[in-house]
Amino acid sequence: MFRRYVNNPNPVLVEWIKSADVIIFESGIAPIFFDLVKRLNPQAKTIYLASDDLATINVAAYVKETFAQVGPKMDAICLTSPLMADEMPGLENCYVVPHGFDYSVEDHADPSPYGPGLHAVSVGSMLFDPDFFVIASRLFPEVTFHVIGCGMSAHPDFGKNVIVHDEMPHRLTLPYIKHASVGVAPYRSANVPRYLSDTSMKLMQYDFFKLPSVCPEGVVGDYASRFGYTPGDADSILRAMQGALAAPRLAPEKAHLTWPEAVERLLAPDLFSDTRLVS
Question: Which positions are catalytic?
């Protein structure tokens, strides 16, 4: 099926490949088009953008095998976290280019949508674990938990202090993040990749707004503002929430690249000293 897909490319794709100076292969099935790209436009610069590890997003075995063969032939493999390095087919052409950040989010984060009291917020649906809120809502009845765009309706065992919001435009989530007491990244215990400590969009936003956050131990990383727990373990959730609620709001320990800075490094990673992969 994949071979037939590659051998019958969309005419628009063919036109774009032929006219491009740089071709970026996003992590997913894109590597299967590498040989087609080299055939149609051998002069184009080829760059692989590893936004996710292929095993984590469960791509087909054929895609993984193809990437193992073509990855070393690309001009650059750009990792959004150095913790992805072990899953690459080779390190000779690997660089680290973190996600960019749009600093203008600050302009859209007021006023507060909350009433008085303590509020915890979770945004997004990736690897969403409803059991965190089943446990945390009972342990912290004084906290109102706001769950935004989790991809499911309210769990029957949620406490009355859990409010499930429908998915909303990104800009509308910003006041909920900025004015919360705690940010929650409730990833499930299974298949939580360590590189999420660097690539999780929700955790990046919590950091930017100086929001203490709660997340599984595996994605705490080296961030002092994050408090780790073991999914399903009430004692660890209790400690993590207590730590986050008592923590000061600190400026981010790591400066995020702006999107122009990230794109510059993606297009020519060898020209920047901060893209070097340090083992």
Answer: 52
What would the pLDDT profile of 52-92 be if each residue is shown by its tens digit? 999 988 999 999 999 999 999 999 999 999 999 999 999 99
**Which residues have a Cβ under 8 Å from the Cβ of 116 and sit 6 or more positions away?**
none
User: The pTM is what?
Assistant: 0.89
pLDDT of 162 strictly over 80: yes
Q: CB of 251 within 8 A of CB of 86? A: no
Neighbours of 78 (CB within 10 A): 24
Question: All domains of the chain, ordered by start, with CATH?
Answer: 2-99+257-275 (3.40.50.11010), 104-246 (3.40.50.2000)
Task: For residues 97 and 94, give the distance between their C-alpha atoms in angstroms, rounded to a whole number.
Answer: 10
How deeply is 135 buried, as exposed, middle or buried, from its count of CB atoms within 10 A (0-12, 13-18, 19+)? Answer: buried
d(CA 18, CA 15): 5
